Amino acid sequence: MAAEATLATLAISDLNQFYGGSHILRGVSLEVRAGSVCVLLGRNGVGKSTLLKTIMGLVSAKSGHVALCGQDITEAMSYRRVRGGIGYVPQGREIFNRLTVEENLLMGLAAGSAREIPAMIFELFPVLKKMLKRRGGDLSGGQQQQLAIGRAIAAGPKVLLLDEPTEGIQPSVIKEIGEVIRHLAKTQNMAVLLIEQYYDFAKSLADDYAVMSRGAITDRGRGEEMDAKNVRGLVAI
Fold first, then answer.
1. According to the model, what pLDDT value does residue 109 have?
2. pTM for this structure?
3. Fold topology of 2-235
């Protein structure tokens, strides 16, 4: 029972990925625990987004394993990973611009058994309720990001993957998104893997951190160690 209790919700083992002849992911191993936020930092082009796409099955792993709640999903199709409990907010948000806010959120329910949009989404993002009939493309960047997160959590995932959710967002919305991420981890017991360039935002949320460089994890530790280990210097451009 003790071993089961400490089992990571998301476990990545020795993951390798290539684009053409380029070795993009180099033996990446990482674990994210339920109820915690793991921030993944690194300069542009080191493989962070590729890692999330590989976890989602959008690109196939050359070798290595991805496990969700102890079950190997390395060969599973993307839709099965979503149904299994992984929510994904890609860089650039990728909402459906011509669909309404309501229709975008309903798309997120396809992975689960619920047929109505959970009230929690509107509690976390009240602006979405006000703009329910507005097209996604008419929303501001910050509102679109809130919609993308709302869509990803509509089916109640066990794991939430976030790729630079603060990119191009005004400070007031960044603060709100940070509060939502913390709420989802601590109150909903989600395992959150967050890619972030904004160091102070990442540090404020991190239970654990990992640094990527040239496709490999080069440093990791607890969130409270980030300043002492000069993580800011490791990821500075």
1. 85
2. 0.92
3. Rossmann fold (3.40.50)
